[in-house]
Specification:
The protein has 481 residues and is α/β, with parallel strands linked by helices. The protein has a domain at 88-287 and 335-371: Aldolase class I (TIM Barrel), CATH 3.20.20.70. It has 18 helices and 15 strands. It is globular, with a radius of gyration of 23 Å.
Length: 481
């Protein structure tokens, strides 16, 4: 056997002809838990192939897989480089108030801010939108409308200023509102839906008892669950709304029922987000890393059964994003699962006093304040050392992520968690085991040919297949933003 290999490989082959040596491709085997297929992943470019286990040795010895990889490698690298380092900010998470009428267990905004914080005046809010518009006019192509997502604390506590801003700038920005929904009355819904504003609301359980374990008013006397359900009834049939479920140990066992509940109410999109662990209170309700995947995958399976039965999808957007990270990296819609994450480079956050942070997750952490929109301006904040700490955090500098085959499907989020919970930006964030399992599950769906069932219809319109002989790797035909 050794003689055969020696004679076959004796020619003067250039560096790069062989796997995992010299200039050759680095393809790491990935056990995806499938009975028939293994993954092969190039961690640097996020190129991958699914190979039948019986043909693994053949694939690794050369042939079509390696030839095609060589042909496409430069474009994979360029695509990943642009996605990771070539974006311009195109969205703002805009907090028009620091205050909130709720006291949720896992909130990333400190309690004192939520109780006694600042509220932006109508005049200041309009000035902020004018300044943002001026910035984006310089940095984005005319065809690209920037997004402003009013975020919390609870933005509808400052409804008059917020609605004035939307009315004045609805042609300049795509607006969204992320709300706890307790103030989303008929008038607010009419105003927002008539202007096509996307609306995200939060609900943690199918029963009040579950929701109120984590989402409660300060005095505990508001029926938050009932209020959210009323708002959902008002929004029924509106295509631009979604429900965020924050997954904690208080509701994890009910996730499949939660999916049923949302599907029954014809919610178009949901997110099943593991709670961020930036502040200590959130860590008290978080699931352990290794506990998170089982209820999450059970909920995805239930959503698939419901789709097969009814023909109607409830897309779990955060999982769909992992699928897109694998199938079409630049088509991903959320920017936590890539390194550096989107904070400070794809978007940034504006606090009610005009302070600028790389992401809402850092509001309340003064050392990550990059500047102020009204004093010093946005350009200075975007290039500030505070922003650079986040935009410069790459998986290649984090142990064990630097050795991880799926590092560009995970991104080692979140820098705020890494800093506050784990002691530094060079540490992983939370939920490593969860990312491993959901990535393996995503590959199994791809191997079984059912990944589309978990994605938005039409997600691949305008997408071209770059490499589909041994494993589909596709990339959208879009200009870099
Ligand atoms: S957090 Fe875990 S899964 Fe994610 S890149 Fe790091 S080692 Fe890999
Ligand atoms: S990973 Fe964390 S800091 Fe980065 S965009 Fe997501 S929530 Fe924000």
């Amino acid at each position: 056997m050794a003689v055969t290999h020696a004679s076959r490989d004796a020619g003067n082959r250039p560096s790069g002809s062989h796997l995992n040596t010299g200039e050759g491709p680095t393809l790491l085997p990935l056990d995806i838990g499938h009975p028939a297929y293994m993954g092969l992943v190039d961690p640097d470019t996020a190129f991958w192939a699914l190979v039948h286990k019986d043909r693994l040795a053949d694939a690794l010895e050369g042939g079509e897989l390696l030839t095609s990889f060589h042909q496409k490698r430069a474009s994979f690298q360029e695509e990943m480089q642009t996605l990771r380092f070539g974006l311009q900010p195109s969205a703002v998470y805009f907090n028009p108030t620091d205050r909130c009428n709720l006291d949720c267990s896992y909130c990333y905004i400190p309690q004192t801010m939520r109780r006694h914080g600042t509220e932006m005046s109508r005049e200041k809010l309009l000035e902020a939108l004018r300044l943002l518009q001026g910035h984006f006019a310089k940095t984005l192509p005319p065809s690209r409308r920037p997004r402003v997502i009013f975020h919390g604390a609870e933005p509808l506590l400052n409804k008059e200023a917020l609605f004035a801003g939307i009315a004045a700038y609805n042609n300049e920005f795509d607006f969204g509102v992320q709300t706890n929904a307790t103030l989303l009355d008929g008038e607010a819904v009419d105003f927002l839906t008539s202007r096509g504003v996307s609306i995200g609301l939060s609900l943690d359980g199918i029963r009040a008892e579950t929701t109120h374990r984590t989402r409660k008013s300060w005095a505990g006397n508001l029926n938050v669950h009932a209020k959210v359900l009323e708002a959902m009834e008002r929004l029924a049939g509106y295509p631009y709304y979604s429900v965020i479920v924050t997954v904690t140990r208080e509701n994890a066992s009910e996730l499949p029922q939660m999916v049923e509940f949302l599907h029954e109410r014809q919610v178009p999109n949901c997110l099943l987000n593991m709670t961020r662990c930036t502040l200590p209170a959130a860590r008290e309700v978080r699931l352990a890393d290794e506990e998170a995947a089982t209820p999450f995958i059970a909920a995805l399976e239930r959503s698939h059964e419901l789709f097969r039965q009814s023909g109607r999808k409830l897309v779990v957007a955060n999982f769909a994003n992992i699928l897109l990270a694998i199938l079409a990296p630049t088509a991903r819609r959320l920017m936590c699962d890539i390194s550096p994450c989107g904070g400070g480079r794809a978007f940034f956050a504006l606090a009610a006093n005009g302070d600028l942070f790389p992401c809402s997750e850092f509001i309340g952490l003064d050392s990550f304040r990059g500047g102020n929109l009204f004093a010093g301006g946005l350009d200075a904040a975007l290039t500030s050392p505070a922003f650079h700490r986040v935009t410069g955090r790459t998986v290649e500098t984090i142990d064990p992520c630097r050795r991880c085959a799926i590092r560009h499907f995970c991104g080692s989020p979140c820098p705020a968690e890494a800093h506050e919970m784990n002691g530094g930006m060079d540490r992983p964030g939370a939920f490593c085991a969860f990312y491993e399992e959901q990535t393996r599950y995503a590959f199994r769906l791809i191997a079984d040919g059912i990944a589309d069932d978990f994605l938005w219809d039409g997600w691949d319109d305008g997408v071209v297949t770059l490499f589909d002989k041994v494993g589909p790797l596709v990339t959208p035909e879009v200009s870099p933003p």
